Amino acid sequence: MESGRRKGFNGVLSSLSLLCVILDIQLDGVLGATHVEIEQHLEMGRKLLAAGQLAEALSHYHYAVEGDSKNYLTYYKRAAVFLAMGKSKSALPDLTRAIQLKPDFLAARLQRGNILLKQGNTQDAREDFETVLHRSPDQEEARDQLMRANKLEELREEAHAAHHRGDYSTTITVLDRVVELSPWDPESRELRADCYIRLGDPRKAIHDLTPTTQLRNDNRAAFLKLSILHYSLGEHQESLGHVRECLKLDQDDKDCLSHYKQVKKLSKQLDSAEEHIEEARYQEAIVKYESVMRREPNVPYYTNKANERICFCLVKNKMTAKAIDLCSEAHQRDPRNINILRDRAEAFILNQDYEKAVEDYQEAREFDMENNEIREGLERAQKLLKLSRKRDYYKILGVNRSANKQEIIKAYRKLAQQWHPDNFREEAKKKEAEKRFIDIASAKEVLTDPEKRQKFDSGEDPLDPESQQGGGGGQGGQGRPFHFNPFESGGNYHFKFNH
C-alpha cells in the first residue's frame, strides 16, 4: 500500500514537472510576441505623434506601457504625448515613474520640474532642477528654471503681503507676473479672482476662476463661486450650469444644493415670464416679473430686467400712462438701456406725444447706431411728429391711438352732428364748420379703414397727395386729399345720423 502511494506521488510530480515545462515554453512564446508588439506600438505611436494625431498615438503608448511596465522610456514617451495634448496632470505620474525606474534620467527630471513650476510647486520643482545641476552643472535650462522658481516664491510673498494690507490693485499687478511663471497654479488665480471681486470686476474674476475647476481636483468651491458670480450678473443659465457641476462632485453639498434651489426657482420664473410674452399674455408676464423683483430685490440686474420687461408689457397692453411712469423709473435705474428707451418712445406715441418719442429714439440711437429697430422707430416717430403738425386724425376725433372701430365711429357721429354746417347761420362760423366737418369725415375714413389706418400709424397720411407720391400708395397719385367733398356741389347737404 505504501508502495502504491509512492507511485502515485511520483506520478503527480512527473505531471507537474511536465506542466511547468509546457508553461515555460508557452510563456517564452508569449513574451517574445509581446516584445514585438510593443516595438510595433512604439513605432506607430512615434509616427502618429509626428503627424499630430495625438489621441491615436496615445492609445499605442498605452498598449506599450501595459506590455512593458519596466521600460522608463515608454513612460517618458507617453508623458510627451500627454503634454502635447495639454494634459500636464496626466504626464506627471509617467515622468515620476520614469525617474523611479531610472533615477539619473535627467530629461525626465527637467521636464517634471518644468511642470511642477508651472503648477506653482516651487519646492519640488527646485529639487528636480538642483538634481539636474548636481549631475550636469552646465545645464542652462535647469539653471534658468531654478532662478524662475526662486523669483516665483519672492513674487508670491509680495502678492500675499499686498493682499493682507488690502492693496488689491498692487496684488493683481504682482499676481499677473506670478501667473506668467505658474499658469497652472490654481491658488494664484483664486487669489487674483478675489481681488477682482473686491474691486467690483466680476467678469475678470470669472475668467480667473474658470480654469481652476480643472486645475484643482474636486474644486466645488470654485464651481459655487462661479455660479454666484454669474447669478449676480443676471446669467442664470450659466449659474445653473456651474452649480450643477458642483453637485455632480457631491450631490449632498449643502452650500451648492441651497444655491441650486435658489437659482432654479428664479430661472423658472424668468423662463415662464418670457413664455407668457411670446404668447402675448402680457399681464401674466407682468405678475411673474413682479415676483422676480420680490425674490431678488438686492440683485440690480434682476430688478432692472424685470422693470424693463414690465415696461414692454405695459406698452403692449396699451396701458399708456402707467407705461410712461414705469418706463421712466426704469430709465433712471438703467439710463443706457435702449430697450427701455424704445418702449417709452412707443408709449409716448400711444399718448400722441411725438416730440418726446423722437427724443427717446434719438437717445437710444446714440447708444447703438447699428440697431435697425431703433433707426426704423426713430424714422416713424419723426414722420408722426411731422404728420401731427399737419393733421392728426386721432386728435380730430378725440380718440386714443388704441381706440377700436366702434369707438371711432361713435366719436365721429358725435362730432359730425356737432359740426354739421346746418347748425350754423353766420357765414364765418359756417365756413369753419365746413372745414371741421371735412376733417372729421376724413378722420373717420382713414381710421375705419385698416389699410389706411396702418399707413397713418406708420407716419404716412393716406389722404395727403404729397405723402402718396412718396409712398406710392392708396390714392394712385390723385391730387385729391380725400374721396369726396360733401360741400363741393353747393348748399344742399343734409345728413341723417342714427344713434
From TrEMBL:
<feature type="region of interest" description="Disordered">
    <location>
        <begin position="448"/>
        <end position="499"/>
    </location>
</feature>
<dbReference type="GO" id="GO:0051087">
    <property type="term" value="F:protein-folding chaperone binding"/>
</dbReference>
<keyword id="KW-0732">Signal</keyword>
<feature type="compositionally biased region" description="Gly residues">
    <location>
        <begin position="469"/>
        <end position="479"/>
    </location>
</feature>
<dbReference type="Pfam" id="PF12895">
    <property type="entry name" value="ANAPC3"/>
</dbReference>
<dbReference type="GO" id="GO:0051787">
    <property type="term" value="F:misfolded protein binding"/>
</dbReference>
<feature type="repeat" description="TPR">
    <location>
        <begin position="72"/>
        <end position="105"/>
    </location>
</feature>
<dbReference type="InterPro" id="IPR036869">
    <property type="entry name" value="J_dom_sf"/>
</dbReference>
<keyword id="KW-0677">Repeat</keyword>
<keyword id="KW-0802">TPR repeat</keyword>
<dbReference type="InterPro" id="IPR001623">
    <property type="entry name" value="DnaJ_domain"/>
</dbReference>
<keyword id="KW-0834">Unfolded protein response</keyword>
<feature type="repeat" description="TPR">
    <location>
        <begin position="338"/>
        <end position="371"/>
    </location>
</feature>
<feature type="signal peptide">
    <location>
        <begin position="1"/>
        <end position="32"/>
    </location>
</feature>
<dbReference type="InterPro" id="IPR051727">
    <property type="entry name" value="DnaJ_C3_Co-chaperones"/>
</dbReference>
<keyword id="KW-0256">Endoplasmic reticulum</keyword>
<feature type="compositionally biased region" description="Basic and acidic residues">
    <location>
        <begin position="448"/>
        <end position="458"/>
    </location>
</feature>
<dbReference type="Pfam" id="PF13432">
    <property type="entry name" value="TPR_16"/>
</dbReference>
<feature type="domain" description="J">
    <location>
        <begin position="392"/>
        <end position="460"/>
    </location>
</feature>
<dbReference type="GO" id="GO:0005783">
    <property type="term" value="C:endoplasmic reticulum"/>
</dbReference>
<protein>
    <recommendedName>
        <fullName>DnaJ homolog subfamily C member 3</fullName>
    </recommendedName>
</protein>
<dbReference type="InterPro" id="IPR019734">
    <property type="entry name" value="TPR_rpt"/>
</dbReference>
<keyword id="KW-1015">Disulfide bond</keyword>
<dbReference type="GO" id="GO:0006986">
    <property type="term" value="P:response to unfolded protein"/>
</dbReference>
<dbReference type="InterPro" id="IPR011990">
    <property type="entry name" value="TPR-like_helical_dom_sf"/>
</dbReference>
<dbReference type="GO" id="GO:0034975">
    <property type="term" value="P:protein folding in endoplasmic reticulum"/>
</dbReference>
<feature type="repeat" description="TPR">
    <location>
        <begin position="106"/>
        <end position="139"/>
    </location>
</feature>
<dbReference type="Pfam" id="PF00226">
    <property type="entry name" value="DnaJ"/>
</dbReference>
